[in-house]
Each structure stands twice: as structure tokens, then as C-alpha cells.
Amino acid sequence: MEPLTTVRVALIAVFTLLGLFFTFVSMTGVIRLPDVYSRAHTASQADTLGAGFALAAVALTVGLAGSGFKSVLLLFFIFVTNPTAAHAIARAAFEDGNVPWTEGDERR
Q1: What band does 63 get if pLDDT is binned at 50, 70 and 90?
Q2: Which of 27, 51, 24, 43 is closest to 83 using CA atoms?
Q3: Residue 53 and residue 17: Cα distance in Å, rounded?
Q4: Which of 57, 40, 47, 41 is nearest to 79 (CA)?
Q5: How far apart are CA 3 and CA 9, in angstroms?
Q6: Taking 70 as the threshold, does the pLDDT of residue 8 lie above it?
Q7: What is the pLDDT averaged over residues 71-97?
Q8: Cα separation, 104 vs 76, whole angstroms
Q9: Distance separating alpha carbons of residues 71 and 54, to the nearest angstrom
Q10: Nearest C-alpha neighbor of 48 from the set 71, 4, 80
Q11: Domain boundaries in the chain?
Q12: Across 49-74, average pLDDT
């Protein structure tokens, strides 16, 4: 395994911090937003970005041989499944009769 260069270490640090930031934003949105639709949106958008940046940092750390290639495959899997799962959750909530929160409604 080749030694990590300064630029590579800096990219790993930036991707890790971005992953933590977007994961924190997602967590805050799930806690603070008023209904299942907006929670599903923040979970699918921000969480996908957070996991994407974290897995990109892992791939840069270990290289593309072996585990790095597996992390890239996992990244692709997350990019495909997270929005699909959020759509399925929102659709199930709609079919169950859950109405979206609108301005003027009391916070639930």
C-alpha cells in the first residue's frame, strides 16, 4: 500500500467532515420537522449525501483495491436505495391517509 499524500489526507478529512455535517443535518431534520413527508425528504437527501461523503473518504483511505471497491459499490447501492425507500415510506403514509403538514397547522 502506498503512503498517503498530503493532498489525499486533506481530501479524506474534507470528505469525512462533509459526511458528518450532512448526517447531522439529516438527524436534526428528522427530529425537528413536523410530518412524515418532510422527514422522509431530509432523511433521503441529507443522509444519502452524508453516507456518500463518508464512503468516499473510506474509498480514498483504503484505495480502490479490495475494500475500496466494495465501499464504492456500497455507495452506489445507497444512492439507489435511499431515495427509493423514502418514496415508499411517503407513499405508504399517503395511502394510510396521513395528510401533509401545511402552514397554519399546529405542530404535531
Answers
A1: confident
A2: 43
A3: 8
A4: 47
A5: 10
A6: yes
A7: 90
A8: 39
A9: 10
A10: 80
A11: 6-95
A12: 88
Among the residues of the chain, which ranges form H helices? 6-32, 36-62, 67-95
Pull the grid cell for residue 99. 395528510
Q: Name the phi and psi angles at 23, rounded to 5.
A: -65, -40
Residue type, 7: V
Average pLDDT, the chain: 87
Cell numbers for 87, please give them.
Answer: 418514496
Write out the three cell numbers for 19: 459526511
From the list 77, 72, 73, 69, the residue with the least C-alpha distance to 48 is 77
Backbone angles phi, psi at 85, to 5 degrees: -65, -40
Are 78 and 58 contacting, i.e. CB atoms less than 8 angstroms apart?
no
* Rounded CA Rg of the chain: 18
Q: Which three cell numbers stand for residue 15?
A: 470528505
